[in-house]
Specification:
Length: about 280
Amino acid sequence: MKEKLARNISIYRKERGLTQEELGQILGLSFQAVSKWENAQTMPDISLLPQLSRTLEVSVDKLLGYASQNRPITIYEEEYRTQDYYWGTEPNKVCYQVLQIMPPTKRLKLLDIGCGEGKDAVFFARNGYDVTAFDVSDAGIEKTKKLADQTGVHVNVFKADIVDYRLDAHFDVIFSSGVLHYIKPEFREEIIENYKRFTHPNGLHIFNVFVNKPFIAPPPEKEPNAFKWHSGELLTHYYDWLIQDSAEVVFDCNSSGIPHKHAMTTMIAQKVTST
Ligand SMILES: C[S@@+](CC[C@H](N)C(=O)[O-])C[C@H]1O[C@@H](n2cnc3c(N)ncnc32)[C@H](O)[C@@H]1O
């Protein structure tokens, strides 16, 4: 918990545009005290938590690294509560490319970030990968478990918020489709670095991210915590990996019942290490 608290203080302080000195001043402390919290050397006194959470405009729960229990964080929570599979049960096309590039001829650990109702995670498990998946939606997690059970495979699925969650174990394949826009631009470098660091040599990242295009109207769903990527931005994080594939596609979407279009960058990058 100490590490999570340390990271969250740093993240939310920067998000509020405060320096360590300014936060210290508000709380009647030195900047060194704040710096020690952020380096996980010490923890704030419990009596300071209410003022700290007010100043950083974040609940104590969230500051301590627990996803907020009272705020529906995704618009999909309601959609996933029905019997039907909102995104269907057929895997994304790019999953077949993963099979081709890195078939599970040995035990390969795969992570699906923002797995939704589990169509891709279950596809990978069915094809022999050792799959871990998370999403912020309780209903999505339940649906993923149900789909895995029905298919007779196991997916290690849990609830986590992409904004707070960091990897501390290595994967061979990290996959995410239509989710990374929930990371604010200023946190992308740090989060992608964490994903890259916890990828085994020769491992793959397969990411689909929504991108802004001037000729595409904003989607009908209003999501205050979504921030589309710039065209080309994703690749800038992978200058030191081998780009196996990259494309930008525009596709029709009917989610929410209103026909609209999205632009998406798809990228497959490989962590090639020197021989
Ligand atoms: C467009 S859907 C994609 C779902 C799935 N990857 C798929 O392709 O079927 C976006 C997903 O991101 C999840 N999500 C939204 N905000 C999130 C967050 N902060 N952390 C983790 N997942 C989040 C939603 O619950 C939803 O399942």
